[in-house]
Amino acid sequence: LHILLFIFPSVQSLQILVYSLAIAYSHLDFSSTLIRKLEARGHTVDLIIARLSNVITNNGTHNARTVLNVGYSNGGPDWTRMPHITRPFSDLPGADAYAATLALTYFKYTSQLCEHVLTSESIAAHLSAHSYDLALISNYDTCPLILAHRYGIHRVVGYSPFPVGGPESVRTADWIKNQDIYIFQYYGGIPDLPIYIHDAGGRFEQFDIFNFADRFRNFVRNMFMMSERAQIFRGTNEIARKHYGADFANIYELGKGMFYELTNSHPLLEAPRVTSNRIKYIGGIGFKPAKNITDEYHRILASADAGVVLISFGSQILADAFPSHVVDAFVHTAKNLPQLTFIWRYSKPLQEAPPNLHTVDWLPQNDLLQSAKVVAFVSHMGMNSFVEATFAGVPFLSIPLFADQIHNAYNAHRLGMGVILRKQSITRDTMIRKMSEILFNETYRHRAREIASLLAIYPDDPSKVFVETVEFAAKATKLGEQFRLPGGDLPVWAHLGYDIILILYSLLLLAVYISFNFAQYILSRILLKKVKSD
C-alpha cells in the first residue's frame, strides 16, 4: 500500500487564480503553459487577462474554468505603436534617455490598465463569489498584488516569462520589460550590487570586472536606476488607495509577502548570480518535441544539402519594421552563400530574392529547429526562441532588439554557442562576416550540442519544479517572510560595508591625527628641554 501511495500520490484539487498581463503573444503562451500544467494535475484554474496590447485578442490555449478579460476602454493607448516595436532596428531603445521615457510610458499605461482592472464589475463579482487557495500572478505588474490582498488571497506566487539572470537589462537601456527583475531582487531581499553587475545591454562581453573605468560606469548608471525604483510601485499604490482607502497596504510590503517567484530561466543558461530560496527556475517548461511539418517544408529541408539557416524575429516585429538596409543585408548574404538554404519569417515580397532564400508568413520554429538540417538560427533572442534553440542544440547569430533579448544574446555568446551582431552595425559586410563565423566555425555548433545534451539530463525538471512549488505554496504560510533575505532592507552603502569602512577609516585618521599631534608634543618638549639645557 505504501508503495502504491508513493507511485500514485494523492493530490488535493486546488482552486487557483492566474493573472496574466498580456504584452505579447509569447507572454500569454507562457501563462497558458503554466495553466495546462496545473490542469493536468487536476487543479481548477480561473484566469484574468489584462491586455496591454490591442493586437492580442485570443485567450490562450488551455481549459481554464473562467476567463475574465479587461482592457482599455475605447481602445486606449496602443503599446504596439511604441517606437521600440515600430522601429526596432533604430538606436532608440539603446539610449538611456529613450529608456527613461519608455519606462514612464509603461508605468503610465499599466497604471491606467490597473484602473480598469480594479473597477471591473465582472472581476469584482467573480472574486467576491469565489475563494482561492493561491494566486499565480504575472510578476511584471503590481496590480494583481492589489487584487489578491483585496479579496483575501493570502498565498501569492509570482511568475515571469522573462529571465532573472541579472538586473543589467533593466538598469540600462531596456529595463522596462524587465520590471520583474527589480521586483525579484527587491521582494526577495537580494542585495543590490551596483558595481559588479555588468552592463550586458550596452557592452556585451567587453565588460571587464577588473577594469576600474567599467566598474565606475556601472556604479554611476546603476545607482541612478536604483533611485528610480519607487516609480515601479508609486502609480499602483495611489490607485489602490484611491479605491480601497488610504490605509490600504503598501505594494512594497505586499510584494515582500509573496511566497515564490518563478522565472523563465534555466540555471545552465544564466551567469552565476546572487539568488534566494524564493526564486525557482522553470526555464524550458514550454519546450515541446517537434511535430510533423508540412510537405513544403519537407521538400525544402530535403533539398538543403549544406544545411538550413532559420531567420525569425518573433511575433511582435512585423515586416514593415525592417529597414531596407537590413532586408538588403539578408538578401545579399543569401546570394553570397548559395550552398546554404535560408528560411526567413518575412511576409512582404522581395525583389531579386535568390532561389535559396525562402520567405514565409509563419514559421513552425520549434519543429524546424529540431531538424538535423538546421545549422544556425538568426534570432532576435526572445526568451522562447532562446530556449527552443538551446534545447535543440542550434547555434545563434543573435541580433537583439530590446528588453531581455539583449540579456539572452549575451548569455548565448558567453556560453560559446552564439555570436552577436548589433542592430546598429548591420551592413552587407557585417552580416556576411558574422554569418560565416557561426556557420563555418564548428566550435559554436559543438558547444550548442553540448549545452543541449546537458539540458536533456539536467536533474530538475521545470514542469515538476513548477507544479510541486505551487502545490507546496498552497499549503504553506508566511513563506515570504521565511525566504526573504535581510540584506535587501539595507541601503547599498550599508550592505557593501561602506559605513563600517568609513568608521574604521575615521578611527584610523583620528589615531593618526592623535599620534601626529602627540609626536609633535613630545618632540617640542624634547627641543624645549634641549634649549633650556644649552
TrEMBL record:
One of its GO terms (molecular function) is glucuronosyltransferase activity. It catalyses: glucuronate acceptor + UDP-alpha-D-glucuronate = acceptor beta-D-glucuronoside + UDP + H(+). Belongs to the UDP-glycosyltransferase family. Its EC number is 2.4.1.17. This is glucuronosyltransferase. The keyword Flavoprotein does not apply. The chain crosses the membrane at residues 500-523. InterPro entries: UDP-glycosyltransferase, UDP_glucos_trans. The lineage of its organism: Eukaryota, Metazoa, Ecdysozoa, Nematoda, Chromadorea. It comes from the Eukaryota. Keywords: Glycosyltransferase, Membrane, Signal, Transferase, Transmembrane, Transmembrane helix.
